[in-house]
Amino acid sequence: MKSWSSKSTALMVGVSLLALTACEEPKVDAFVFESLDQCKSDPLASSDQCDSSFAEAQTQHATVAPKYASAADCQADFGAEKCEEAPYKTSSGGSVFMPLMMGYMMGSMMGGRGGMMSQPLYKSAKSPNSFRTAENKNVGSKTGGTKVARSATSRPTFKSSTRSRGGFGSSGSRFGSAAT
Q: Which residues neighbour 96 within 8 Å (Cβ) at sequence distance 6 or greater?
């Protein structure tokens, strides 16, 4: 009976390892940079690609960054002096706050599209060395050419509500879309 039990255990461990391996998300090539200058100094990225990708990430930043009703809530999630006032107001006219863009990611096949695509990246107070997308997907701490989870390359969505303290995942009141 003892050999049956050890065979069953070995089989279950093998199946579990296979299931975990099968669940690992595929990785895709991307470039992660903290600044436009860092991108331009990378021999694998052209100056034109750097300029256009940085501009695209900056344009997206105001619409896709997590939004907060108070600077304190934003700073609780992203750290002191790591937040800015968004170009939006709440429906009652109050200020909206968002994290500073701490870098950007670009890649040739991001989101399943051809050509170069870019998006802004952020760093949370809990993981200050790792970049995260506006959708709270971790893309790691490595800059330059790297591999990231395919889901991290999806185009970020417009954030139409402010978040309560607790960061990514909890939301509160909606704000107007008129930029100031």
A: 67, 68, 69, 85, 86, 88, 89, 90, 162, 175
- Model-wide pTM > 0.70: yes
CA 63 distance to own-chain centroid: 14
Residue 138: half-sphere exposure toward Cβ, Cα within 13 Å: 9
Q: Are strands 95-99 and 103-107 parallel, antiparallel or unpaired?
A: unpaired
Q: How does pLDDT run across 127-152, given as a tens digit for each residue? A: 999 999 999 999 999 999 999 988 88
Q: Dump pLDDT digits (tens) for 76-113.
A: 999 999 999 998 888 888 889 999 999 999 976 444 44
Residue among 55, 28, 27, 34 nearest 143 (CA): 34
Instruction: Give CA angle at 135 (173, 91), nearest 5°.
Output: 20
Helix (H) or strand (E) holding 77: helix 71-78
How far out from the chain centre does Cα 135 lie?
5
Phi/psi region, residue 96 (left: phi>0; alpha: psi -120 to 50; beta: rest), is beta
